[in-house]
Amino acid sequence: MIRIALAGNPNSGKTTLFNVLTGSNQYVGNWPGVTVEKKEGCLKGNKEIVIQDLPGIYSLSPYTPEEVVTRTYLIHEKPNAILNIVDASSLERNLYLTSQLLELDIPVVVALNMMDVVEKQNERIDLQELSKRLGCPVFGMSAANNDGIEAASKAVVRLVLENKKPIPSTFSEEVESALDQIEQLLPIQEQARWYAIKAFENDEKVFAELSLEDSVRGQISKIREQLETKLDDDSESIITDGRYNWVAKILRGVYEKPYKHAMTTSDKIDHFVTNRWLALPLFVIIMGLVYYLALSTVGTYMTDWVNDVFIAQWCQGGMRAFLESVHASDQVISLVVDGIIGGIGAPLGFVPQMAMIFLCLSFLEDCGYMSRIAFIMDRIFRRFGLSGKSFISFMVSTGCGVPGIMSARTIKDERDRRMTMIVTTSMPCGAKLPVISLFAGAIFGNDGGWWIAWATYVFGIIAIILSALVLKHTKMFAGESSPFIMELPAYHLPKMKNVLRQTWQRCWHFLKKAGTILFVCCVITWALVSYGFGPDGFGLVQEVDQSLLAAIGSFIAPIFTPLGWGNWQATAAGLSGFVAKEQIVSTIGVLANVADDTGLDPQLWQAVGVMFPSAAAAMSFLLFNLLDAPCLGAISTLAKEMNSHKWTAFAIGWQMFYAYSISLVVYQLWTWFATGMFGLWTIIAIGVVTFYLFMIVKPMNKVSPKQATK
Question: Which residue in 93, 545, 630, 641 has its CB near the most CB atoms, within 10 A?
Fold first, then answer.
């Protein structure tokens, strides 16, 4: 079995190459002992060659979970070869990692990706000379265009068979002399140069691994201190400068740019996109356009057809006619037509709108715009106790909260990581889009629905910031946020194949849930609506008010009366959202189809109008279900990632309290301003506002990181 490790920066196109090399032969899990995603798969056409996609990193310094995982794997697992994916459009910066990989005494092949971008920029890279200077094979390729990949993969296999080791990077004479002295002191032979460099950098993880005697560590410290004094710099900076000097020497005469000082197209675009004053308004406008396209134009036309023609006429009408033709009982017809098709069909009708939003977001991600937004948001979020890495989790959560929670793994600081996982599900995910679309249309109709959906997106970010501010002013989360460093990729026109693949994957996740979880939920909901305790005891009921669902909802409903929706129908719909958020629409669909004689209209918008007596109550319900605890799948992921019953309970408790309090404030103050009604709950709502303001402005607790992570 031959193991080939893919190593490179996060924006190098490594994942795209992995997908091309392995096709569908992929396995996704976690690296042993850590919660960083692990991907591996067999090379297409050769099951004896395993491709392992290492986490994207910028160096082998042990500062982030990804760097620790990659470094540990390369040092201790020792793959047969490394395929180093380098972004050719940022060659000087990306060869820094290459300089470290060449020191590991493992065969290396360098694949310069995005050569198509290099050609468009009229730049020239002499691949043959670069290969000679690096001492390893160098190939140009374009993973997005599937160009040059086969040559690079064959070269790696050939290199494994030859077992040809690379030539390590070099430093100045003074540094090389110090490294030679340290290398002589180390009790190892294999990869001794790499260990010597790390010992010179005073890497504690390496010292812990080597278990050196105090006398040996003392000699290494003396060598380090003497060179630091001579060069007037610290050891890490000396090595860093040495690496960049080596890169510059390697590229001299090999890498030529036509205009050294001319602004690139990406630079010109960034002049406006990342502008301190224009960046945020531009982002808000772009997202508004996304929701307008999805909910008022293209997406809505398709959704209307799916709801009115495909589901209502073809599916429900056709199935009802078929079941009646085979003389099925009324109970079976009600279960299939009203319970299953009506329940599942309600959220499925919004798939075209979801697909349009996912299509737009995938396009923005693939072209490089969303990376800029993470950079922009870092400047804002750091004022509120979050880092730019947190925003990446929030963006992932717009598709699904599960990967959004999991993406917080990349945040090194434990406090920031926990807080990000707690607040990230406040972003409107794909499962919430049907709920948002339904209530936006019910409250404001087709013409105004898009901007309500857009407003919920903006509200999600604001709600996250407010929640983070309050939490940051508690002792558990106090302290400085971890720094955020990322490389901004050059803008490029996305490949429609990649955009459509991402869109399909997000929609398919929703469709799979509709065919499994929602199917079961719809059957259970129909049973709870159809059965209950009537005049003749337990059995089928004619009045929905006598059903089991009505009994359960009526028991819990008083809790939500201060929020404006203290009736059993709305409460039942809200409770179903804890299984899956789209189940809220399914429950309303089941109630609307089964209970015509109770005043609920089969049209979903009218059903919402019956359940909620005012726009304030409907908005309160919508906001509660945006902010409360996520679905069971996300809660399960949250518990796994927290790895603590105490923190999981706190996270769910805070999410429920926060959702309830915000919904209470919105409903009570809206009702007060609109109708003049003022009561005890209005006073409590004002008290909640006062509490949040106090938590935001009060001095922040000063605690050490060690105390905060206990």
Answer: 630
Q: What is the pTM of this model?
A: 0.71
Residue 231 to residue 233: CA distance in whole angstroms: 6
Measured over the CA atoms of residue 14, residue 15, residue 21 and residue 26, the dihedral's sign is: positive
Answer whether 82's CB lies under 8 Å from 56's CB.
no
**Residue 598 pLDDT greater than 50, yes or no:** no
Higher-confidence position of 33 and 268: 268
Phi, psi of 5 (to 5 degrees): -95, 130
Q: Cα separation of 92 and 73, whole Å? A: 26
One-letter identity of residue 300: T
In terms of C-beta distances under 8 Å and separation of at least 24 residues, what long-range contacts does 127-130 make, across chains too? 129/253, 129/254, 130/250, 130/251, 130/254, 130/255
Hey, CA dihedral for 600, 601, 603, 606, is it positive or negative?
Answer: negative
Structural domains for the chain: 2-162 (3.40.50.300), 173-256 (1.10.287.1770), 282-697 (no CATH)
Distance CA 41, CA 29 (A): 11
Specify burial of residue 673 (Cβ count, 10 A radius: 0-12, 13-18, 19+): exposed
Element (H, E) at 240: helix 235-251
- Torsion angle in degrees (nearest 10) through CA of 275, 280, 286, 288: -160
Q: Comparing C-alpha atoms, which of 563, 610, 561, 562 is closest to residue 588?
A: 610
Label residue 224 by pLDDT band (50, 70, 90): very high
% of the chain at pLDDT higher than 70:
90
According to DSSP, residue 138 is labeled: E
Work out whether strand 81-87 and strand 2-8 pair parallel, antiparallel, or are unpaired: parallel
* Gap between the Cα atoms of 153 and 15, Å rounded: 15
Euclidean distance between CA atoms 195 and 614, whole angstroms = 69
Q: Is 14 helix (H, G, I), strand (E, B) or coil?
A: helix
Pairing of strands 37-43, 26-30: antiparallel
- Between CA 422 and CA 474 the distance in angstroms is 14
Torsion region of 540: left, alpha or beta (phi above 0 gives left; psi -120 to 50 gives alpha): beta
Place of tokens 């809660």: 635
DSSP 601-670: -SSHHHHHHHH-SSHHHHHHHHHHHHHS---HHHHHHHHHHHT-HHHHHHHHHHHHHHHHHHHHHHHHHH
Distance CA 289, CA 285 (A): 6
- Distance (Å, whole) CA 46 – CA 245: 40
Opening angle at CA 556, ends 589 and 544, nearest 5: 40
Neighbours of 643 (CB within 10 A): 9
User: What's the CA gap between 466 and 460, in Å, rounded?
Assistant: 10
- Which residues share a beta bridge with 51? 4, 41
Q: What is the pLDDT of residues 373-414, one digit of tens each?
A: 877 887 777 777 676 678 778 887 887 888 788 778 767 778
* Beta strand segments in 472-628, E: 531-534, 537-540
- Terminus-to-terminus CA distance in the chain, angstroms? 43
- Largest Cα–Cα separation, the chain: 97
**What is the pLDDT at residue 447?**
59
Residue type, 550: A
Q: What are phi and psi of 496, to 5 degrees?
A: -60, -30
